[in-house]
Design a protein that fits this description.
Helix content: over 70%
Distance between the termini: 33 Å
Number of strands: 4
Strand content: 5-15%
Shape: rod-shaped
Length: 301
């Protein structure tokens, strides 16, 4: 149906217009930027969702390594035992488990870059705490009790770090939204410019068509067909370039083991969303062409 509509005869030689050469590339750039902006927003949202899911209902207690102690291992073991006893007696705590030195080193290795560096550092003792689902614990009061009972003990509820991550994700999503708005505006402006250029070039032909009884809707359909043809080509080019870019980003991030770098891993629903910009760009181009032609033809009467 669409192929037949695209191949229908046209009374206007629109294919030879200068706009026919640059409009597909403009649409390609718009689609490319729109897909990358949307992918960035989805990646930021997914990062927050994963971290929020993994950190909800958990706490971390850190016990700093003391200085000037002779029997350091015994001192640290005693402080860890006292911390575990206090935590397990706290209502709302489901589980408290001390991480081994190897586990702590494995957590720090992606940030510090090598096991040799990690082995040379005075690593603090870490205790992983899991809360009872729905439990309400006075965290400031628990932090004070820990600090008073165990020197060097500090409670981390991940809230501040997670709030910063959420703020960063909201900024990224807002920037992506602004990019999408600018892309849509640029696409509309490009189509309007192309349509007005074509109308100026073929003004005599349009007036002759009016004289022989052609209606504005008939002339507008020819511009719609032309805009659809050009925007489909540009959308396909932009989609292919954006897909190649995202595939490269996925391949690069999948091979990295660096904690701050978010992994690009979309669900099938998100990939479906990333396939929408080409169709949206095509629809915007066709609708803009129709409205611009009808408005311009109204001024010719």
């Amino acid at each position: 149906m669409i192929a037949h509509w695209l191949s229908a005869r046209s009374d206007l030689p629109l294919r030879s217009d200068p706009a026919s050469r640059f409009l597909p590339w403009v649409v390609a750039v718009m689609v490319y930027l729109a897909i990358l902006a949307l992918a960035g927003a989805l990646a930021a949202h997914d990062s927050v969702r994963r971290w929020n899911r993994s950190l909800t209902g958990t706490l971390t207690v850190q016990i700093a390594v003391p200085t000037g102690e002779r029997n350091l291992d015994a001192v640290m073991a005693d402080r860890v035992d006292r911390t575990l006893e206090l935590l397990r007696r706290t209502p709302g705590v489901d589980r408290a488990q001390a991480l081994s030195a190897d586990q702590v080193a494995a957590l720090l290795e992606p940030w510090l870059g090598g096991a040799a560096i990690v082995d040379e550092l005075p690593l603090p003792a870490l205790i992983d705490v899991t809360l009872v689902p729905g439990a309400r614990i006075d965290l400031p009061e628990l932090a004070q009790r820990l600090a008073a009972a165990v020197p060097g003990a500090a409670l981390d509820d991940h809230g501040r770090w997670l709030r910063d991550l959420i703020r960063l994700a909201l900024i990224a999503e807002g920037a992506a939204g602004m990019i999408l708005i600018l892309v849509c505006g640029a696409a509309v402006a490009a189509v309007i410019f192309a349509v007005r250029t074509s109308l100026a070039i073929h003004r005599d032909v349009v007036e002759i068509l009016h004289l022989v009884g052609a209606r504005d809707a008939y002339i507008a359909r020819q511009f719609e067909r032309h805009a659809l043809n050009l925007s489909l080509k540009g959308s396909l080019i932009g989609w292919l370039l954006a897909t190649a870019t995202l595939a490269g980003a996925f391949w690069i991030t999948a091979g990295l083991n660096i904690a701050p770098v978010p992994r690009v891993d979309f669900t099938w629903v998100e990939w479906l969303l990333l396939a929408l910009p080409p169709f949206a760009a095509t629809g915007i181009a066709v609708l803009t062409a129709r409205m611009a032609v009808l408005r311009a033809l109204g001024g010719l009467v």
